[in-house]
Design a protein that fits this description.
Blueprint lengths: L9 H52 L5 E3 L17 E3 L2 E2 L2 E2 L2 H4 L13 E5 L5 E10 L13 E4 L47 E4 L17 E11 L5 E11 L3
Antiparallel strand pairs: 1-2, 3-4, 5-6, 6-9, 7-8, 9-10
Length: 251
């Protein structure tokens, strides 16, 4: 009589281990990919949070004239990559403003300069380079609609601007029931004054009386702002975030 097999042989155990290992290979790959994705996501979240804090502070708390383009190309905090139009943040007495309150968000303690660039570090020790660029929108006595902010309006019709000998408007006279007979009618203008409605008029900030600023940005009413944050993942891939906004002189 042949006895039934009562145990598992070594080849069977080895075969079972190989099958089990093969089954776990995709799972290990998924876990590894998930870990990498989480690391990338954490970096992006940190950079986005830094960008939001920097720009919120810039728009809400930094005075308009405390931001100006540096007069020379500015390198990163490590001395590389000199670029134009990097912002310089300056102290102001009126309104009172200490540039350190803003520059520390960029990773610059303002001990050596006031340039808006620096390096910040997250809880994992990953370094992020920050750089803020500023582009003042120019202003000129004769408005240039190609690169300036301009305001287009339709002037009041000529008949609405009529005045009497005392310099008072005779069209909008609320003391009398009727308009003065000497007033020009919009339906029957004099033969020598056919232009009842002047054409559209374009005005710039200078013509509207914008007050001059303290530096080369005289009469400037708006500045374009670009914030760039760059970093390198642990995998060695370069990443960056660029956010554009504008700051107006609302005072």
């Amino acid at each position: 009589m042949k006895l039934a097999k009562q145990g598992v042989t070594l080849p069977e155990i080895a075969l079972a281990m190989l099958i089990l290992a093969a089954a776990f290979i995709p799972l290990i790959g998924v876990i590894g990919t998930s870990s990498t994705d989480s690391d990338v996501a954490n970096s992006v979240v940190f950079a986005q949070t830094a960008v939001r804090n920097i720009l919120d502070t810039l728009l809400d708390d930094v005075p308009f004239y405390a931001i100006r383009p540096a007069g020379t190309p500015v390198s990163d905090a490590d001395g590389n990559n000199p670029e134009d139009n990097v912002a310089e943040i300056v102290d102001l007495a009126d309104p009172a403003f200490d540039r350190r309150t803003f520059l520390t968000l960029l990773g610059n303690d303002a001990s050596a300069d006031g340039y808006a660039r620096g390096t910040i570090v997250d809880e994992r020790g990953l370094q992020y380079k920050t750089k803020l660029y500023v582009f003042p929108i120019p202003v000129s006595p004769n408005v240039n609609t190609n690169n300036e902010i301009s305001f287009t309006h339709l002037p009041r019709p000529i008949y609405e601007n009529q005045i009497n000998a005392d310099g008072q408007n005779i069209w909008y006279n609320y003391d009398e029931a009727f308009i003065s007979g000497a007033a020009m009618s919009p339906y029957d203008p004099p033969d020598d004054d056919k232009l009842v409605q002047p054409p559209l008029k374009i005005l710039g900030a200078f013509e509207l009386g914008t007050p001059p600023g303290p530096d080369a940005n005289n009469h400037c009413i708006m500045k374009k702002i670009l914030l760039r944050v760059t970093w390198q993942n642990r995998s060695g891939h370069d990443r960056s975030i660029d956010i554009f906004t504008m700051k107006a002189n609302l005072k």
